[in-house]
Amino acid sequence: MSGEGFALELRGITKRFGATAALNDASLAVRSGSLHMLLGENGAGKTTFLNIATGNLQPDTGAILLNGQPVVWRHRADALAAGLSAVYQHFSLVPAMTVAENVALAGPRLGAKYNRREAEDTVRRIANNAGLDLDPAAMVGDLSVAAQQRAEIVKAIARNAPVLMLDEPTAVLSPPDAAQLLRWLRGFVSSGRTVVVITHRIREAMGYGDEVTVLRRGQTALSAPISSTSEQEVVAAILGATDTRPLAFARQHSTAVRQTLRTSVLALHAASVIDAGGARRLRTTSLEVRGGEVVGVAGVEGAGQYQLLRLLAGRISPTSGRVTLPPSVGFVPEDRHRDALIADFSLVENMALRGIEARRGVMPWAHVALQVQSAITAFDVRGGDVRSTASALSGGNQQKFVLARELADAPQALVVENPTRGLDVRASQEILTRVRDSAAAGSAVVMYSSDINELLATADRVVVCFAGEVYETTLDSDAIGRAMVGVR
Amino acid sequence: MSLLRRLSAGVAPAFVVLAAIAVVALVMMVTGFDPVAAAQAAVRGAVGSEFALFSATLKRTTPLLMLGLAVAVAFRAGVLNIGADGQFLAGAAAACAFGLAVGDAAGRSVLLGALAVGILAGALWAGVAAWLKRRFNVMEVVSTLLLNFVALNLVGFLVRGPLQEPTGAYPASATLLSAARLPLLLDGQRLHVGFVFSVGLAIATWWFFRSTAAGFQIRVTGASRTVAASAGRLDVDGVQMWSLVASGAIAGLAGACEVTGVTYALYEGLSPGYGYTAIATALLGGLNPLGIIMSAALFGALGAGADAMQRDAGVPAEFATVVTALVVLGVLAVPGVMKNWARITGRGEQ
């Protein structure tokens, strides 16, 4: 809030993709030295805005001003050279290089001799200051999604740009990590830099931001200092006047159903997992999930929940011990693009992925097309029909489609991993409602979420992974938060 | 977007081929050859007469089509089979050995036996690489490529040793008896029944990928191993292993057809790099079996034209090899170019 002028302004931006306007006369004004929060539903135009600000896309109409001067970006490099650094949702890292090499690659001194020690020290220093746990010598391809996100952030910071834009930086971070990053960004702006953070998490925006801009259907719905607005006002701006449903997920336990279904459906019996690199990811663990209940799973990155969920989904086998699986388990992995959907395959082909290992003979494409049709109807998947490719759908609709696919044959168990990652409030609620409905219908449900409030709102009981061990805790955010960092 | 895709599927390959020919024509001019005379000779040699069409172009199209399909089956599964040439030679050697051993004692069934043995030998040859990949994680690009040289030397040994013709004067096998030969399609032309097999195989492969569960499993594995193993529970290593074996089987059939349909004998120069041209064929055809019919015919014509160009216009046939190489580079660059173009014009995905 120190600076008087605007570091970055987007004025009257319109951008069309074919018939649809992603942005329609939208504006954004970011004060120098402020932490600016950009909110909006999926498809509201936030990412398009970022892409226009950083030269990835050209606006149809409108102007970009940097420190009050009109600028035209022909290419992303123009914006970078002018001091605009960005972290995109889809990472731009070289998997076969180390974190330090990736950071050096993006740095200004390309062409100079690469000094490994210096590069690694730089990464370590930035990572420590920003509270981002990162091994500079690790190969990027071996990192988890969250660690790759941290590497992207460090890379952007290392450019030392006066304006930093981050698209959903906290979506895959654990709550303590997200809080530390935001705290660090506060310090970063107090040194005169300017930061724009795109987020879905209203609490983050209200808690850490200086100013907020809300986009709704391609237009600026609200632009105000955080101090002079309220959570209700922001929510109303995000959802629009017609929809003022309460944000908190309404917990509707159908106790009648759950009392009748108490049989164990999914179970681990003293199962442990040692990965290909010889690291013990999951220590001897026993867990029972009964039909009709939702077991929440919490844990910071790499605490063993990845392996726990894949054991329960039948995607990996235990190194020792046993797993009891029902005939059919639905599985919604966290990374849609890597694990759940093939972007340039049709929805029909993507639907047929479930159970593909058991298919023989001729593919029943006509039948699968009908399944797609009913999934689209039942789960209100918008933006595509049976002929569309998966890439035609927005993130939220892709996730609804994946969930619909996994629930199409009414599986006895459902395993979901951060199912609302990158989704807006409305889509998140829909997904969580579906997850609960599935339990209410008798499925044994296991859900991992990096958002404790989401777990509290959805789960009947919660287990926490810490350093490969699994504990059950009480349904209490303090207890869960402490267990996640190993304090019991 | 769909229009763009159709453009890149249909027009772009044609454009790439024309551009490659234009570049080579320029090089001819610079190096003192007459591109017009060369082109005239090439066109005459490829499609200028019935003989050119059937006995040169389509005769060459047959192995290219089968090998292109073999390459496509592996590539579709995400397995880079660079060894179609070696699998072709293995199939040819086995078919020839079988045909010579049985002679005409068993009547026409010797031909079927020879083709079956050729398929088996190609599958086994690729199977070595498939097993190495599965068991020891050996990259198939390296193993299949190196096995080409093993196959070539094996053929060299056979035609100087166990399979050498009775006089011992030439490094070649004895000639197959007519019982072991594929029937010719037309009187006075070299085109044989194998051409019909190859087109039939292309249509069958197209149907296989479009309609069968196994074809779908291969496509999914090639598109994304992680999705195949996570959204489905496919054994992706198994799918890739069997795809490579199937690829080798098709290449082996191609070799068997060549030896029983064209040369009637085994010798070292049996394949003028068919297995490598097949990679260009498969890529230019977009890994789509129906597209590969077109690209195989094109490369068949290019090969026939190159021979005529050298014979009639005195222009080295190597210029045609350069066209092939440029086509591969061009085809590989097209998706990137299209994507950039889509991004710049804002017609890509958001």
Task: Summarize the structure in words.
The complex is a heterodimer of chains A (488) and B (350). By secondary structure, chain A is an alpha/beta fold. In chain A, 34% of the residues lie in helices and 25% in strands. In chain A, strand 9 and strand 10 form a beta hairpin. In chain A, helix 14 (395-407) packs parallel to helix 15 (425-440). The two termini of chain A are 40 Å apart. Chain B has helices at 2-30, 35-47, 50-76, 84-102, 109-136, 140-160, 194-211, 213-223, 225-230, 236-263, 274-284, 289-313, 318-345. Chain B is globular, with a radius of gyration of 21 Å. The mean pLDDT of chain B is 91. Classes of the chains: A alpha/beta (488), B mainly alpha (350).
Taken from the alpha-carbon principal axes, the silhouette of chain A is globular
Mean pLDDT of chain B: 91
- In N-to-C order, the SSE pattern of chain B is HHHHHHHHHHHHH
What is the terminal separation of chain B in angstroms?
A: 12 Å
Unreliable sequence segments of chain A: 242-260
Main beta-sheet annotation of chain A: 6 strands, mixed
Quickly give the structural class of chain B. Answer: mainly alpha
Mean pLDDT of chain A: 85
* Count of strand segments of chain A: 19
Structure annotation, total helices of chain B: 13
Overall geometric form of chain B:
globular
* SS content category of chain A: alpha/beta
Our Rg estimate of chain A from Cα atoms comes to 23 Å
Total strand segments of chain B: 0
Terminal Cα span of chain A: 40 Å
Helix content class of chain B: over 70%
The amount of beta strand of chain B, in percent, is under 5%
Assembly context of the chains: heterodimer
Radius of gyration of chain B: 21 Å
